[in-house]
Amino acid sequence: MPREKELDPTESISALFGSELRNRRTEAKLSQEALGEAVGYTGSLIGQIETGRRQPRLEFAQRLDSAFDTSEYFQTLWHHVSGTSRFADYFKKFAAYEEEAPEVSDFAALIFPGMYQVEGYMWALYRSADPFASDEEIGEKVANRLARQSRLSTPTKPVLWLLVDEAVLRRPVGGPEVMVAQLSHVVDLCRSRTAQVQVIPSRIGEHAALEGAMTLMTLADGSAVAYVESPHTGQLVEDPVVVSKMRRTMDLARSLALTPMASLDLINATIEEYRAP
């Protein structure tokens, strides 16, 4: 039997919940599968919650309290997890920087970054990422992402710079109707002087940033941080040497992009293509 991953309950509230769950389970001499059967969940889910890979739901906490006869202990822990888990643990520090940064630059090769997404685009992405998730779970993620965007309508909104591959415009996420709304929203951000967008056309082959997405943020004190994300995790980069290298990569890619005006022309032309019967 493989050795279970060691847990650090001081790492986060989610880690504390997982650690307490494992402690109670081992005290009761139950395997993950046995506990899962007792509370109506899979053993795999028990393991994922213990290690912090999945967030518990209130019903799950209620069933734990019933199974372990712990009054409302796990329900109380759940409320702390729920109150602090608007974002995944790895994303929280980035989100805090994002709320204050006066300037944010994004590069995307595959999809529009979250700050630019319309609701239908978000739903399509989240649904494709987890076809088994409930509408409630996806709706919560969409609401959190929309909340991040609320800063764009405040007097302290950041200056946004977006660099995308043309493939981002062409990938029909959610279908033509959603893409018309998505691309029109990007155009509106440009016209409202909120963002400046440049597109690297498909005729350009390789370029420095082709391998992935990145975000660079200039902070109020003039320093900078960066963030890179993969489908299930992300990494905040605060080392100034690495951030400088990432900025150079983005600058090299931008040198191959269309001008902002030509980029808007391409986006508008793509909108008309999606509208065509």
Structure characteristics:
Endonuclease, Chain A; single chain; alpha/beta; 52% helix; six-stranded mixed sheet; 277 residues; 2 domains; 13% strand; 434 Repressor (Amino-terminal Domain)
In short:
This protein has 277 residues and is an alpha/beta fold. Helix content is 52%, strand content 13%.
Strand order of the largest sheet: 3-2-1-4-5-6
The level 1 CATH classification of the largest domain is: Alpha Beta
Mean pLDDT across all amino acids: 89
What separation lies between the terminal Cα atoms? 58 Å
Question: Largest sheet, described in full?
Answer: 6 strands, mixed
Give the number of domains.
2
Description:
The protein has two domains: 13-84, 434 Repressor (Amino-terminal Domain), CATH 1.10.260.40; 90-275, Endonuclease, Chain A (2-Layer Sandwich), CATH 3.30.870. Strand 4 and strand 5 form a beta hairpin. 52% of the residues lie in helices and 13% in strands. It is elongated. The protein contains twelve helices and six strands. A six-stranded mixed β-sheet has the order 3-2-1-4-5-6, sandwiched between helices. The N and C termini lie far apart (58 Å). Helix 1 (13-27) runs antiparallel to helix 5 (73-84). With 277 residues, it is of the alpha/beta class.
Fold blueprint:
Blueprint: H1 13-27, H2 32-39, H3 43-50, H4 58-68, H5 73-84, H6 89-100, E1 103-108, H7 119-129, H8 135-149, E2 159-165, H9 166-170, H10 176-191, E3 195-200, E4 214-218, E5 224-230, E6 233-237, H11 240-254, H12 260-275
Parallel strand pairs: 1-2, 2-3
Antiparallel strand pairs: 1-4, 4-5, 5-6
Helix pairs in contact: 1-5, 2-3, 4-5, 7-8, 10-12
